Each structure stands twice: as C-alpha cells, then as structure tokens.
Amino acid sequence: MSDLSSRREFLRTTAALAASSPLAAGFAAEVQAERAALPPRHILRPDEPVVVGVIGSGGMGTAHAEGFANAARDGRANVRVAALADVCGPRLDAAKKKVEAVQGADSCTTYGDYRALLARPDVHGVLVASPEHWHADMALDAIEAGKDVYIEKPMTRWLKDAFRLLDAAAAHPERVVNVGTQFVVTPSTVEAKRLIASGAIGKAVWSQTSYCRNSKEGEWLYYAIDPSWEPGVNLDWNAWCGPMPKEPWNPEVFARWRRYRKWSTGIIGDLLVHRMTPLVHAVDAGWPVRVTASGGHYVDKVMENHDQVNITVEFEGEHTMVIAGSTANQEGVPTVIRGHKANLFLEGRRTRLQPEQLFVNEVEEKTVDGEDHGDDQDEMRRQWLDCIRTHRPAPSPPDLATKVMVIVELATRSMWEKAAFGFNPATRKVRKL
Q1: 384: pLDDT confidence band, cut at 50, 70 and 90?
Q2: I want to staple 57 with a disulfide (CB 3.0 to 4.6 A). Which of 20, 95, 120, 426 is the partner?
Q3: What is the CA radius of gyration of the chain?
Q4: What secondary structure does DSSP assign to 88-115, as a single string?
C-alpha cells in the first residue's frame, strides 16, 4: 500500500472510530493531527502560473493538456502543464509531444505511475482523465497529496465511491474539487438557474433533455487499437485494471471500455451525465429519490452496454426529469424546464422564457442571450484555474456530481434488473422498489 493510500485509510478508520467510541475526543484529535500534517495550501502570486498535472493521456486527457497549453500560449490563462501520467507509454509520449509543441521542449515530465506525479510539490492542481473505475482513488490520493482536483465525468464508477469522494472533499475544504461537466457553465444553464430561483416560472414541475448520436458500426469504436501496445513492455495492464479484479489483456477493453458493463455504465454515465447535470443544477430540487429506466440493445447487439436508454427521475423536491439517450439515432429532444407558470427552453447561449397560456398576463415572455465565452470546456478549465487562485467554490462541485451519480447508479441497475429503484438521502441507501 502506498503512503498516500495508508494515510487515506488511517483517516477513514479513525474518523469512523471517532464517531462511535467513547474516546471520540481522542480519536478526533488524532484525525486533526493527521490532517495538519497534510501539505499546506500554496498561495499563488498574481504573476505565478498555476502548475497542473494531467493523469490519463487518452483522448480526453490529451485534449485537456493541450487545452491548458493553448490557453497559456494565447494569453487566456496563466498556466503550465508540468506533468503527465499514464500506464501506456505510446499514449504518454504522444501527449507529451503535443503539449511541448505548444509549450516548449522539455517542459513536461511524464510518469508511468500517477503517484509520482502527485509527489511533486510544485504541482498545484491535478486533472484526472483516467477511465472511470480509477476516478475515485486517484482523486482521493490527489486531495491527500494537497492538490486541487478536476475530475472528468462521471465523478466515479460506483455510487459508494462518489460518497467517499464527497466526504473527503467536505473534510478538506481547503482543496478545490471540480467535476468536469462543462455544460454547467453554459450561459443558458446559468440563466435558467437564476430564473427558477427567482420564481419566474413558478414551481418547476418537470424537465426533459437528451444526448443522442448515431454510427453505422457501433458507438466508441472510433477509439483506435494501437498495434504497438505491448503489456509488460510499454503498457502496464495490471495497473490499468487497478482496483478492479484483474483479467487477461484485452486491447478491445483497453481502447473501448465504455462498451463493457464491468468498466462503464455506457450511455448513462458517459453521455447523459453531460445533459442531466445542468438540469439538476438549475432546477435544484434536492436528491433523486426514485428512478426507472428502460431501453435495450436495439441495433448494436455486439456492445454489452445498451444502445437505447430512457430514464425517469423523481426528486425529493417534487420534480420529475425525463432523459433520453441513444447511440442508434441522433434525433434527441429539446432541453426544456416546465414550470407551473412558464417554460424555459435552454439553447446554448440563449434562454427563452415562454409563459403558460393561463399566465400570459402575469409572466412576460422574453429571450436572454448570454455572454459568448467560447467553448464550454475551455471555460470550465478557466474557471477551475481561477478557483485554484482565489479558492472560490468550484462551478461543478462534488455534491452536485453525487446527486447525478445517484441517477447513474439507479438508472443502470434499473436497466439491467428491470425494476424501479429508490434512494434514501438520510441513510444513503438504495433499494429495489
């Protein structure tokens, strides 16, 4: 066990004992002493670049690393990519070349073990873009190493790990933890949240959204298999499997893990998280308490995960959300939040408020065009960097992401087990209904 993992286990164990033992004060003091030994938060000078490391150099990790480098080159952010980590040598080398083509030769160090990246005292923030079964452990280790964290969506593979991460973030308020669901910063999302909170549409009763796309051969097959990959030579397959039970080398799984039930929730966690998170954020109806999902393998019968998903979510705050996902047809539904008095249509930068017929004399129809901040993912990265400098709250925090993970887990179980599932926010328990 690594020093970071040992420290994390110590904190978890002593905190649990402190909650149940008559010697609670003593255990609490031990926990506080251990936390005091964690690396202090670095306060950046105004002219000092935010130094970041990226864990995972696949498609998303490389795009994030290039995004940081390009933002620095163009004067949009004072940031430097100092380190990359991945278990795959060819991917790591390719990402390093892309970053250094922008940032300069020998400006970025690579590591086969992400823990070596976390051990660097000069790294302020870490972006985790590994496969989702690694998200929780890597993010927890980063927090314990004194880093601010940006985790790609979905926040975790399993709901239990989402709560582990939520609790760790709450225990370490000095760390900024952001989950990469960039549509939270889309102008229409921001405006919709403001309008709903102001009472502009009355009670928000139900909403709809979707993420649908199509392909001839099957989803996620565009992730190429590199014939140069050779486990034990330039790729550590056992490290990639990580906290999961080990299995024989499979390049299909390594490249296209989103297609497989063991490694991913498919459409639900990889695609629909993008669309449901902004709605959960804007409507702010509390925890999901009942979820049903239907669909199946309608076209891509080779893929283990489903190619058609339809989800209904009921929230404790009396709101119902309907979500459609497909990788067999690209025609989705408009994103709409329906209120008792008016409806909101979310269209990128634009938010349209349309009164219900009964309330046309009380509610004014209007359209709000938000600021054009460019690409939402660039904006999310920029906001995270600003959070590192100012220590203001993350735009997409763990509590929001955990609510979404409740939907992901319950919808996934509903699909496979063909039943409705409930969630109790007070006990954090899931049950089949």
Answers
A1: very high
A2: 95
A3: 22
A4: BHHHHHHHHHHHHHHH-TT--EEESSHH
CA separation for the pair 135, 129 (Å, rounded): 8
- List alpha helices for 37-88, DSSP H: 59-73
DSSP annotation of 269: I
Is the peptide bond prior to 251 cis by the omega test (within 30 degrees of 0)? no
- Per the DSSP assignment, residues forming a β-bridge with 326 are 212, 308
Burial of 362 (0-12, 13-18, 19+ CB in 10 A): exposed
Distance of alpha carbon 65 from alpha carbon 376, whole angstroms = 16
**β 204-212/288-296 pair status:** unpaired
Give yes or no for a contact between 221 and 215, defined as CB atoms under 8 angstroms apart: yes
pLDDT above 50: residue 208: yes
| CA nearest to 127, candidates 71, 176, 184, 186 | 176
Percent of the chain scoring above 90 in pLDDT: 89
Q: Tell me how far CA of residue 238 lies from CA of 133, 251, 253, in angstroms.
A: 13, 13, 13
How far is Cα 165 from Cα 399, in angstroms, rounded to an integer?
10
| Residue 129 tokens, joined | 């873009």
Strand partners, 11: none
Residue type, 239: A
Cβ neighbours, 10 Å, residue 170:
11
Residue ranges of domains in the chain: 1-37, 184-217+264-371+397-432
**pLDDT, averaged across the chain:** 92
Q: Per CATH, is 184-217+264-371+397-432 categorized as 3.60.15.10? A: no
Specify whether the CB–CB gap between 178 and 139 falls below 8 A.
Answer: no
Q: pLDDT digit string (tens) for 67-126?
A: 999 999 999 999 999 999 999 999 999 999 999 999 999 999 999 999 999 999 999 999
Instruction: Label residue 247 exposed, middle or buried (CB < 10 Å: 0-12, 13-18, 19+).
Output: exposed
Contact 254, 248 (CB under 8 A): no
Q: Between 150 and 7, whose confidence is greater? A: 150
With a cut of 50, say whether residue 361 has pLDDT above it.
yes
Q: Identify how many contiguous H helices and E strands the chain contains and give both numbers.
A: 13, 16
Could you tell me which residues come within 8 angstroms of residue 423 by beta carbon, excluding any fewer than 6 positions away? Answer: 287, 288, 289, 290, 291, 406, 410, 429, 430
Please, how many CA atoms are within 13 Å of residue 289, restricted to the half-sphere of its CB?
14
Q: Return the closest-CA partner of residue 69 out of 27, 90, 91, 98.
A: 98
Q: What was the pLDDT predicted at 44?
A: 87
